[in-house]
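Hi support team,

I've been running sequence recovery on a batch of backbones for a student project. Most finish fine, but this one hangs at about 90% for roughly twenty minutes before it completes. I'm not sure whether the input is malformed or the queue is just slow. I've pasted the C-alpha coordinates below so you can try to reproduce it. Let me know if you need the job ID as well.

Thanks,
M.K.
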Protein backbone atom coordinates (compact mmCIF):
# COMPACT_ATOMS: atom_id res chain seq x y z
CA UNK A 1 0.00 0.00 0.00
CA UNK A 2 2.75 2.48 0.97
CA UNK A 3 4.54 1.73 -2.32
CA UNK A 4 1.69 3.53 -4.09
CA UNK A 5 2.54 6.85 -2.40
CA UNK A 6 4.67 9.34 -4.32
CA UNK A 7 5.22 11.72 -1.42
CA UNK A 8 4.07 12.37 2.12
CA UNK A 9 2.43 15.77 2.38
CA UNK A 10 1.56 15.79 6.09
CA UNK A 11 3.19 13.33 8.49
CA UNK A 12 1.48 11.35 11.22
CA UNK A 13 3.23 13.48 13.88
CA UNK A 14 2.12 16.74 12.26
CA UNK A 15 -1.47 15.49 12.12
CA UNK A 16 -1.47 14.40 15.76
CA UNK A 17 -0.01 17.74 16.91
CA UNK A 18 -2.64 19.63 14.95
CA UNK A 19 -5.46 17.43 16.27
CA UNK A 20 -4.35 18.12 19.87
CA UNK A 21 -4.28 21.87 19.14
CA UNK A 22 -7.77 21.77 17.58
CA UNK A 23 -9.03 19.76 20.56
CA UNK A 24 -7.83 22.44 22.97
CA UNK A 25 -9.44 25.16 20.87
CA UNK A 26 -12.79 23.32 20.68
CA UNK A 27 -12.76 22.50 24.40
CA UNK A 28 -12.56 26.20 25.15
CA UNK A 29 -15.22 27.13 22.63
CA UNK A 30 -17.78 24.45 23.56
CA UNK A 31 -17.28 24.19 27.34
CA UNK A 32 -20.73 23.90 28.96
CA UNK A 33 -22.63 23.83 25.61
CA UNK A 34 -22.97 20.07 24.85
CA UNK A 35 -22.54 20.33 21.05
CA UNK A 36 -23.73 17.72 18.58
CA UNK A 37 -20.58 16.61 16.79
CA UNK A 38 -21.45 15.31 13.32
CA UNK A 39 -18.87 13.20 11.51
CA UNK A 40 -19.32 12.99 7.75
CA UNK A 41 -18.75 9.39 6.61
CA UNK A 42 -16.60 7.82 5.67
CA UNK A 43 -13.62 10.14 5.34
CA UNK A 44 -13.90 11.88 8.71
CA UNK A 45 -13.69 8.68 10.78
CA UNK A 46 -9.96 8.72 11.70
CA UNK A 47 -10.06 12.49 12.34
CA UNK A 48 -13.22 12.18 14.43
CA UNK A 49 -11.82 9.25 16.42
CA UNK A 50 -8.66 11.18 17.30
CA UNK A 51 -10.19 14.64 17.76
CA UNK A 52 -13.02 13.74 20.15
CA UNK A 53 -10.48 12.29 22.59
CA UNK A 54 -8.85 15.73 22.71
CA UNK A 55 -12.09 17.61 23.40
CA UNK A 56 -12.32 17.79 27.17
CA UNK A 57 -15.98 18.67 27.67
CA UNK A 58 -19.30 16.87 27.06
CA UNK A 59 -20.19 16.22 23.40
CA UNK A 60 -22.87 14.13 21.69
CA UNK A 61 -21.81 12.21 18.59
CA UNK A 62 -23.68 11.40 15.43
CA UNK A 63 -22.76 10.36 11.89
CA UNK A 64 -24.08 11.29 8.51
CA UNK A 65 -23.15 9.67 5.21
CA UNK A 66 -23.32 11.86 2.15
CA UNK A 67 -21.68 11.15 -1.14
CA UNK A 68 -20.95 13.11 -4.29
CA UNK A 69 -17.79 11.44 -5.58
CA UNK A 70 -18.62 7.72 -5.95
CA UNK A 71 -15.32 6.27 -7.16
CA UNK A 72 -14.42 9.40 -9.13
CA UNK A 73 -11.77 12.04 -8.44
CA UNK A 74 -14.08 14.94 -9.32
CA UNK A 75 -17.34 15.73 -7.52
CA UNK A 76 -20.49 14.83 -9.48
CA UNK A 77 -21.98 18.05 -8.09
CA UNK A 78 -24.97 16.15 -6.74
CA UNK A 79 -24.88 15.48 -3.00
CA UNK A 80 -26.86 12.43 -1.87
CA UNK A 81 -27.80 11.51 1.69
CA UNK A 82 -26.79 7.88 2.12
CA UNK A 83 -27.42 7.85 5.88
CA UNK A 84 -29.11 10.61 7.83
CA UNK A 85 -28.51 11.63 11.46
CA UNK A 86 -30.21 9.77 14.30
CA UNK A 87 -30.49 12.99 16.32
CA UNK A 88 -32.54 16.15 15.76
CA UNK A 89 -30.35 19.23 15.23
CA UNK A 90 -33.13 21.65 16.25
CA UNK A 91 -31.82 24.14 18.82
CA UNK A 92 -28.41 22.43 18.94
CA UNK A 93 -24.89 23.73 18.52
CA UNK A 94 -23.78 21.56 15.60
CA UNK A 95 -20.12 20.97 14.89
CA UNK A 96 -19.49 19.27 11.55
CA UNK A 97 -16.24 17.32 11.23
CA UNK A 98 -14.75 16.75 7.78
CA UNK A 99 -11.54 15.32 6.44
CA UNK A 100 -11.39 17.72 3.47
CA UNK A 101 -13.22 20.61 1.86
CA UNK A 102 -12.52 20.65 -1.84
CA UNK A 103 -15.29 21.98 -4.14
CA UNK A 104 -17.24 22.90 -0.98
CA UNK A 105 -20.41 21.29 -2.37
CA UNK A 106 -20.77 18.66 0.38
CA UNK A 107 -20.38 21.13 3.20
CA UNK A 108 -22.51 23.91 1.75
CA UNK A 109 -25.29 21.34 1.31
CA UNK A 110 -24.96 20.18 4.93
CA UNK A 111 -24.78 23.68 6.39
CA UNK A 112 -27.96 24.68 4.54
CA UNK A 113 -29.69 21.46 5.58
CA UNK A 114 -28.87 21.92 9.28
CA UNK A 115 -29.93 25.57 9.19
CA UNK A 116 -33.21 24.54 7.54
CA UNK A 117 -33.63 21.97 10.32
CA UNK A 118 -33.27 24.86 12.82
CA UNK A 119 -29.85 24.18 14.35
CA UNK A 120 -28.89 26.97 16.78
CA UNK A 121 -25.35 27.24 15.39
CA UNK A 122 -23.50 25.33 12.67
CA UNK A 123 -19.71 25.28 12.56
CA UNK A 124 -17.34 23.42 10.28
CA UNK A 125 -14.05 21.92 11.38
CA UNK A 126 -12.02 20.33 8.62
CA UNK A 127 -8.62 18.73 8.84
CA UNK A 128 -7.73 19.74 5.27
CA UNK A 129 -8.79 22.67 3.16
CA UNK A 130 -8.15 22.75 -0.60
CA UNK A 131 -9.14 26.37 -1.43
CA UNK A 132 -8.20 26.10 -5.12
CA UNK A 133 -10.82 23.35 -5.57
CA UNK A 134 -13.74 25.57 -4.56
CA UNK A 135 -16.86 25.74 -6.73
CA UNK A 136 -19.00 27.50 -4.13
CA UNK A 137 -18.20 30.22 -1.66
CA UNK A 138 -17.51 28.34 1.56
CA UNK A 139 -14.97 29.08 4.28
CA UNK A 140 -14.53 26.57 7.14
CA UNK A 141 -14.63 27.96 10.68
CA UNK A 142 -11.56 25.90 11.55
CA UNK A 143 -9.10 24.23 9.16
CA UNK A 144 -6.07 22.19 10.20
CA UNK A 145 -3.98 22.41 7.03
CA UNK A 146 -4.26 23.99 3.63
CA UNK A 147 -3.37 21.58 0.80
CA UNK A 148 -2.45 22.24 -2.85
CA UNK A 149 -4.79 21.40 -5.71
CA UNK A 150 -3.76 17.73 -5.90
CA UNK A 151 -5.66 14.57 -5.11
CA UNK A 152 -4.60 13.50 -1.61
CA UNK A 153 -5.15 10.23 0.26
CA UNK A 154 -4.72 8.83 3.75
CA UNK A 155 -6.10 9.46 7.25
CA UNK A 156 -9.65 8.86 6.01
CA UNK A 157 -9.23 10.08 2.44
CA UNK A 158 -9.56 7.42 -0.22
CA UNK A 159 -8.93 6.71 -3.84
CA UNK A 160 -11.44 4.05 -4.98
CA UNK A 161 -12.03 3.15 -1.28
CA UNK A 162 -8.34 2.44 -0.59
CA UNK A 163 -5.71 4.26 1.52
CA UNK A 164 -8.13 5.52 4.22
CA UNK A 165 -6.11 3.60 6.81
CA UNK A 166 -2.79 5.34 6.14
CA UNK A 167 -1.81 7.38 9.23
CA UNK A 168 -0.47 10.28 7.10
CA UNK A 169 -1.65 12.39 4.13
CA UNK A 170 0.09 11.65 0.86
CA UNK A 171 -0.03 12.04 -2.88
CA UNK A 172 -0.43 8.93 -5.04
CA UNK A 173 1.90 7.96 -7.83
CA UNK A 174 0.15 8.98 -11.07
CA UNK A 175 0.29 5.40 -12.44
CA UNK A 176 -2.14 4.32 -9.70
CA UNK A 177 -5.02 6.39 -11.01
CA UNK A 178 -3.93 6.40 -14.63
CA UNK A 179 -4.43 2.63 -14.66
O1 LIG B 1 -15.79 19.74 -0.93
P1 LIG B 1 -16.20 18.56 -1.74
O2 LIG B 1 -15.73 18.66 -3.17
O3 LIG B 1 -17.67 18.26 -1.65
O4 LIG B 1 -15.39 17.28 -1.21
C1 LIG B 1 -15.32 16.90 0.12
C2 LIG B 1 -16.05 15.62 0.39
O5 LIG B 1 -15.59 14.58 -0.47
C3 LIG B 1 -15.17 13.45 0.29
O6 LIG B 1 -16.23 12.59 0.54
P2 LIG B 1 -16.81 11.50 -0.48
O7 LIG B 1 -18.09 12.04 -1.06
O8 LIG B 1 -15.74 11.08 -1.44
O9 LIG B 1 -17.17 10.31 0.52
P3 LIG B 1 -16.21 9.52 1.52
O10 LIG B 1 -15.97 10.42 2.72
O11 LIG B 1 -16.99 8.32 1.89
O12 LIG B 1 -14.92 9.22 0.79
C4 LIG B 1 -14.73 14.09 1.60
O13 LIG B 1 -14.74 13.16 2.66
C5 LIG B 1 -15.73 15.18 1.80
O14 LIG B 1 -16.92 14.72 2.43
O1 LIG C 1 -8.16 15.22 -2.69
C1 LIG C 1 -9.07 14.42 -2.34
N1 LIG C 1 -8.76 13.13 -1.97
C2 LIG C 1 -9.70 12.23 -1.60
N2 LIG C 1 -10.99 12.52 -1.53
C3 LIG C 1 -11.37 13.77 -1.87
N3 LIG C 1 -12.60 14.32 -1.88
C4 LIG C 1 -12.47 15.58 -2.26
N4 LIG C 1 -11.17 15.89 -2.52
C5 LIG C 1 -10.45 14.76 -2.28
Amino acid sequence: MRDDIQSVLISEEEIQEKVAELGRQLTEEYEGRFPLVVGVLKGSLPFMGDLIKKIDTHVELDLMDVSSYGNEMVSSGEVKIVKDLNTSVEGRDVLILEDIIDSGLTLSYLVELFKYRKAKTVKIVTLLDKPEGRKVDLVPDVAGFSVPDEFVVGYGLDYAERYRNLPFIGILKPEIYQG
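--
Follow-up from support: It reproduced on our side and the slowdown came from queue contention, not your input. The CA atoms of residues 94 and 122 lie 5 Å apart. No action needed from you.
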